[in-house]
Specification:
- The complex is a heterodimer of chains A (320) and B (169).
- Chain A has 13 helices and nine strands.
- With 320 residues, chain A is of the alpha/beta class.
- The N terminus of chain A is likely disordered.
- Chain B has one domain: Rossmann fold (3-Layer(aba) Sandwich).
- In chain B, 25% of the residues lie in helices and 28% in strands.
- In chain B, strand 3, helix 4 and strand 4 form a beta-alpha-beta unit.
- The relative contact order of chain B is 0.20.
- Classes of the chains: A alpha/beta (320), B alpha/beta (169).
- Chains A and B meet through helix 2 and helix 13 of A and helix 3 of B.
């Protein structure tokens, strides 16, 4: 674990790779959020581009497909004037038998400056960061069940926008926490930023058994868990979970854990609702909530661009 | 080590009177964070005419990202008026290499095409690396190359100049 943490920071204590929220000092998280604040303004201009990363080559290497996430990284890079190269590795080299590290060596030989990596195996971005040339910066765009750090950062950025002070909040994360890298990143970010009460809500089969270690309260009843919360994060119920023995059916899941207006009314009146997308309407979230006044799901998408721009700009400015 | 630095308030009065004589009555003042922003605020308050104020943080337009990194406290550029067709005066505290001003001009042009752009600085310390000169200057000043010169503002809003060794980052 120690080498993982240190791998993200250079000798001066600045961010050199973004691999996980776990182990990131509060000052780094706050610096990313503050820098993202300035990029929000850029995205609202008519000319939505700044020349900061002109001449840099950013490779989106997606070993696992995700058009949405890849697109947000692509937009962020382009708005910083970087050149973006999208590689759908799942469908090319690796299917011909090339190892990850050979793929990386080849891309490095093409004078890459930054890799944005998505992989179904936890730890793949760490492996790449360990073996990449010293000038290359790596961003984890989601690895297995481990972390999705830019999603965690955009979640806390959105929460900060609406709630300002983390140290007075109660936050609930609802759904398949066990398999969720989004939940893991958000929990680490919120904990580091000083959120005093974190709850996870879901069926026992979808909650990690050791989650209390992270200082989190667990609830199997949505109604109980939502009482008095300021922020609700709904997780996407991945379809493949339905096939196994973990859950009976989508409709039964919705009746117990789907967020409806009636259940949301148990939270504070000004509570906000987050969802990392893509949403399954009628499975984990009711349309009336998704499209309702307390939903900040679309602002999350907007802020996600600014947050990814901030991460790329900070990394590109880091040496060693 | 202390230099005999000039009184910043006197330089400000000098800069203001030079500008009052010749800037457009509706010129927009755009201050470069942070010293230039303070100056622009004061100038807009004290100059006659219909002036508006905006602020530029040049961090996203600098040319030294790979050597100096992104500074930790980036501020949001705020231009609350249309740049298109406007007479703009960029305001900064110290004019040195000219690189910040180059970045400020590029920032400005991403908001539109101004009718004219002028430059007002409290102090011109020479040392230019780009073909940039100021239209309005409080005073020229010779400062040792190894010292950074910056404007400070106290709680009462009073300006002063100070030098310190360059920070590496």
């Amino acid at each position: 674990m120690l080498s993982k943490k240190n791998l993200q920071l250079n000798a001066d204590g600045n961010l050199n790779h973004l691999l996980a929220i776990e182990g990131l000092p509060k000052r780094i998280i706050e610096r990313i959020l503050d820098t993202a604040e300035s990029f929000v303004g850029i995205n609202e201009r008519e000319v939505k581009v700044v020349p900061l990363l002109r001449g840099k080559s950013i490779f989106n290497i997606f070993f696992e497909n995700s058009t949405r996430t890849r697109t947000t990284f692509e937009i962020a890079a382009k708005r910083l004037s970087a050149d973006v190269i999208n590689l759908d590795v799942g469908r090319s080299s690796t299917s011909k038998g090339e190892t990850i590290l050979d793929t990386i060596a080849n891309l490095t030989a093409m004078h890459a400056d930054m890799f944005v990596v998505r992989h179904s195996a936890s730890g793949a971005p760490h492996l790449i960061a360990q073996h990449a040339a010293p000038h290359i910066h790596v961003i984890n765009a989601g690895d297995g069940r481990h972390e999705h750090p830019t999603q965690g950062l955009l979640d806390v950025f959105t929460i900060r926008k609406y709630k300002k002070d983390f140290t007075r909040l109660t936050v609930a994360i609802v759904g398949d926490v066990l398999h969720s890298r989004v939940a893991r990143s958000q929990i680490h970010a919120l904990t580091t930023l000083g959120v005093p009460e974190l709850r996870v809500i879901g069926p026992h089969t979808l909650l990690p058994t050791d989650i209390a270690r992270l200082g989190v309260r667990t609830f199997s009843s949505l109604e109980e868990g939502l009482k008095g919360v300021d922020v609700v994060t709904m997780l996407r119920l991945q379809n493949e979970r339905m096939n196994g023995a973990l859950l009976p059916s989508a409709s039964e899941y919705f009746s117990r854990y789907g967020l409806t207006p009636k259940k949301l009314a148990l939270a504070k009146p000004d509570a906000i609702v987050l969802h990392p997308g893509p949403m399954n309407r009628g499975v984990e979230i009711d349309s009336a909530v998704a499209d309702g006044s307390q939903s900040v799901i679309l602002p999350q998408v907007t802020y996600g661009i600014a947050v990814r721009m901030a991460v790329m700009a900070i990394l590109a400015g880091s040496t060693k | 080590m202390t230099h005999e630095l000039p009184d910043a308030e006197a330089l400000f009065a000098q800069l203001k009177s030079t500008m009052a004589a010749s800037i457009a009555h509706n010129a927009k003042l755009v201050g470069v964070y942070s010293g230039g922003a303070w100056l622009a605020d004061r100038l807009v308050k004290e100059l006659d005419g219909e002036h508006e104020v905006g602020y530029i943080d040049v961090s996203f337009y600098r040319d030294d990202l790979s050597t100096s990194g992104l500074k930790s406290n980036v501020r949001s550029t705020q231009i609350p008026f249309s740049v298109e067709g406007a007479h703009i005066v960029i305001v900064d505290d110290v004019l040195f290499t000219g690189r910040s001003i180059r970045a400020a001009i590029n920032t400005l042009f991403d908001f539109g095409r101004p009718a004219s752009v002028q430059l007002a600085v409290l102090v011109d310390r020479g040392g230019r690396e780009l073909p940039i000169s100021a239209d309005f200057v409080g005073a020229p000043l010779i400062v040792a190359a190894d010292l950074m010169l910056a404007l400070n503002k106290d709680a009462a809003g009073k300006f002063s100049l100070a030098t310190e060794p360059w920070k590496s980052r």
